[in-house]
Each structure stands twice: as C-alpha cells, then as structure tokens.
Design a protein that fits this description.
Layout lengths: L26 H9 L13 H12 L10 E4 L2 H11 L3 E6 L5 H7 L4 E5 L10 H13 L4 E6 L12 H13 L3 E5 L17 H4 L4 E6 L12 E4 L4 H17 L5 H11 L3 H27 L3 E2 L7 E5 L4 H5 L6 H12 L17 E5 L8 H9 L7 H15 L3
Parallel strand pairs: 2-3, 2-4, 4-5, 5-6
Antiparallel strand pairs: 1-7, 6-7, 8-9, 9-10
Helix pairs in contact: 1-9, 2-9, 3-4, 3-8, 5-6, 10-14
Length: 405
C-alpha cells in the first residue's frame, strides 16, 4: 500500500524554490517595472484586465484560445495552486517525483495526497496503469480521488512527456472523473524546441484541464512573483474559477501593480523578451548537457534533461562512496552536496521520493558564473562551455561526483 498511503496529514515541510535562471534581469522588463513604480491602485483579486488579456494572448499563440474571464492571476504559484486545490473537493493525485511545492499545498489544506509512479521514459505524468490502480485502492479505502496534478515539462526531472504518454494518462484520469491541473511553467525552456513535440493536456481534454504557468519559468524574475491559470469554458469550470477567486480574496493574494504591468509586458512577448527566452534556454541546455555527462561519467543515473535548468540524478550506484562520507539517505545527501557544491541541492524527499532513495535535483544556474558580470558573459557567449569561469565550475561539479566512485 506504499504508493497509496495518504501523505496529506503530516506537517508542512520546507519546499525549495524552483531553479533560478541565475541571469541578469532583462533591461526592458526592469524599465517597465520602474515606470510603474508610482502606481498605487491595487490589482483586483485574480488580476486586472490588462494582465489577463495578455495571458490570453500568450496561450492563444500556443494553440490554447481563451478569454480574460477564463483567466485568474496570483502573486506566485503557491497561492494560486492552494486556491485551485481548495476550489476542488476530494483527494489529490500527483506523480512521483513531483515539484517540491505540490505536496505542501495539499498538506496545508488537509487534503490526502497520493504519489503515483511515472513511466520509465519521463517524469511529470503518472503511469496510466499505476494511476488506475491507485484510484481503485483509494476508493476501496474510502477516499475520494478528485484532482490530478501533472507537469508535461517537468520539474524536477527536466524531461518532456511524449504526447502518447500524456494522452493515456489524461484519458485514464478523465475516465475516472478526475479534473486535471497541468503545470506548464517550463514549456518555453525546451532545449531542442524544433525537435521536441510538446502537447498540452488542454488540447487533448479541453473540458477537463486547468492550465497553470509560473512566469518565473521563462518570462520574469522569480523576485516578481506572478502565476496565471486558464480555466476550461464549461459551467463547472466557471463555478470553480469563482471559488478560486474567493480563496485568493480571502488570502489577500493581490499582485503588486508594477509587477502586474511588467508581467503583462512579458506575456505580450515583444522581441527582446522572446530573444531572452531563447538565449536562456540554449545556454541552460548546453550547461545541463555537460552536467548530465559529468554525473553519468561518475556512475550515477539521470535521464537526459530536455527542458528547464536542472536535472534529477540518482546516486544509488555511488551508495558505498557516499557512505564513506556518512550519507545514507536523501536528507544527508542534500546536506552533503549542498556543502560540497556550494549551491542548494535539494534531495529527492522534497519531491515525493522515498527518503532512502539517493536522489537530488541539480541546478545549472550556479554553473553560469559567480557574479552578474560572469553570468552575463555566459549568456552572450556563442560557446559558453569554453569560458574559463564556466569550465572551472563544471570541473568542480564533476569532481564532486567522481570522488564518490
């Protein structure tokens, strides 16, 4: 019963933030924020019309048409996800591993959270057969499965789920009466955008999917928290959107006016914003590939990262070497590698994996340079891996794993 034991009753645990790009703020966005700094009127709960209209344009360019009344905005993904979960009754299912903030949100609301294994080829989406079995067991135990969280472009694994896997999982979920929340925060960080097929669950099951996006994934700095949700155009979704707004209102979850203006500008994707997204994705792709090669050369396991600015490594093959350093579980592994690498390295237990599994999320941002000038050089260089500071950082990164063999 390990996969179906409810995990929503324990205390709320610290959840590490999503990987930061480690890059300078785009000057155009900084100028928009500064120009709006004197605005004093508050944004309404759920975001003002300009921000919601910009979100509609962003999604429409990706084949997901919507209207401003279908959109809700919040000051960051955590309050938005809490409001969405609160707007749905019942138990919550999510993949194992999953983004670090998901389980704490369910726990905060007192909801049972069930982690379902992912297929071998990707993370972010539950294996459809395991999903059906989990739903069956929850109901036998008296539970009420109602909501499934997925991330087609995944944190923590950095993988992109194939369309056929997404379709099978979504059809299984909808067939069991589950509503789907699709986190598509990382869809604009694909490492090979022309060779990767990305399909949103909302394209497959348009009446049963709410799409969410944290703008800090690719559009805005994480210090300017903004997240948006796109609801289906159904009567039930309209009621859920209203309940979501009620929760955000009760929380006082308003986006600051200057941040909302900068977020709307980013969602409009003018040329400088689009160029920065592409440049950042290409830079992190190169560094992530080098980091993946270093981890594999040391004997550890990791799926090749296909998006984002991180990879997820399994150090089980290095267990004996880790034991020499007193590392026997993922909490100890997190502490050891954070100290050894000089950068936050959250263990797999933060993402729903078992404590005894020696897994960690490794971020590429710290490998881009020690200060803003070096990181800017990394972004501007056509061959960033040849820069002395990047090469030095990658060599130190590789040494930390090679010494465990």
């Amino acid at each position: 019963m390990r996969e179906t034991a409810p995990e929503g009753r324990g205390p709320v645990r610290y959840a590490p933030p999503a990987p930061d790009p480690g890059l300078p703020v785009l000057s155009e966005l900084a100028a928009v924020l500064a120009s709006a700094a004197t605005r004093t009127e508050p944004q309404p709960p759920g975001g003002g019309p300009v921000l919601r209209e910009a979100a509609c344009g962003y999604w429409s360019r990706r084949g997901l048409r919507c209207h401003p009344e279908d959109v809700v905005a919040a000051p960051g993904p955590e309050p938005l996800l809490s409001a969405l979960i609160a707007a749905h009754g019942g138990d919550v299912l999510m993949p194992r591993p999953c983004p670090a903030a998901w389980t704490p949100q369910a726990r905060l609301l007192g909801r049972p959270a069930y982690h379902v294994p992912t297929p071998a080829e990707c993370g972010g989406v539950p294996d459809p057969f395991a999903l059906l079995e989990t739903v069956r067991r929850i109901r036998v135990e008296g539970g009420h499965p109602a909501l499934m969280l997925i991330s087609v472009v995944d944190d923590p694994t950095g993988t992109v789920a194939p369309p056929e896997v997404v379709r099978e999982a979504c059809e299984a979920a909808v067939g069991e009466g589950l509503h789907i929340i699709s986190d598509e925060t990382w869809r604009d960080t694909l490492h090979e955008p022309h060779d990767t097929v990305l399909v949103s669950p909302a394209e497959m099951c348009p009446d049963d999917v709410t799409v969410v996006c944290d703008l800090s994934g690719a559009l805005t700095p994480s210090a300017w928290p903004t997240a948006v949700a796109r609801f289906p155009r159904t009567r039930r979704a309209t009621a859920r959107r209203a309940r979501t707004l009620d929760v955000l209102t009760a929380l006082g979850a308003h986006i600051a006016a200057p941040v909302a203006e900068a977020a709307a500008h980013a969602l409009d994707e003018p040329a400088p914003v689009s160029a920065r997204m592409a440049e950042a994705a290409a830079l992190h792709a190169r560094v992530a590939a080098a980091a993946h090669q270093a981890v594999r050369a040391a004997g550890a396991l990791a799926r090749p990262p296909r998006a984002g600015r991180h990879l997820y490594a399994d150090l089980a093959p290095l267990r004996s070497g880790l034991a020499r350093h007193g590392v026997t579980d993922s909490m100890e592994l997190e502490e050891y590698l954070t100290g050894r690498l000089g950068a936050p390295t959250p263990g797999g237990h933060r993402f729903g994996d078992e404590l005894g599994a020696l897994r960690v999320r490794l971020e590429t941002g710290p490998l881009l340079g020690a200060d803003a000038q070096q990181r800017a050089e990394s972004l501007a260089s056509p061959r960033p891996l040849e820069l002395p500071h990047v090469r030095k950082a990658l060599d130190a990164f590789a040494s930390a794993f090679l010494e465990l063999r």
